Amino acid sequence: MPTGFLQSPAGRAGLVLAATVVFALVLMLGLGDDAYLWIKAIHIVAVISWMAGMLYLPRLFVYHAEAGPGSETAATLKVMEQRLLHIIMTPAMIVSWGLGLWLAWQVDALASGWFHLKLLAVIGLSAAHGYLAASVRRFATDSETNSSRHWRIVNEVPTVLMIVAVIAVVVKPF
What we know:
Number of strands: 0
Largest sheet: none
């Protein structure tokens, strides 16, 4: 482990991600079928964390697009955007995917229509995550050219996909 690894926000995020994975594995192996509700709870917390970032990052981009390149505001937003993406959103997405697939496998949902709809929504959220991650990189180099209006519209995409995923899981329309 490099010197100072745990002093960095990314290092601490990696440690928390690893601890979450180990904790989930211990629950799965130690509790067997009784681990389901614990894993479901961790999955929900991860999804909430991921969605919070997916809804907040485009809002930061609105402000960043309105700030002048090289300004103090732009510099602050760059730090906020990168930390949000790397410390909260990406680890939460990884945990959401991993535990979500495990949960679906546990209830034999992999062939269900509602699961396919949810999976499609989560793939859409993951694609949006990738688009936002690429945008963080462009903002970091002052090469992002989309307007604040663009980011206001993009801000709605995760909301719509989240609604589809929740309805698919709760209502099970198919």
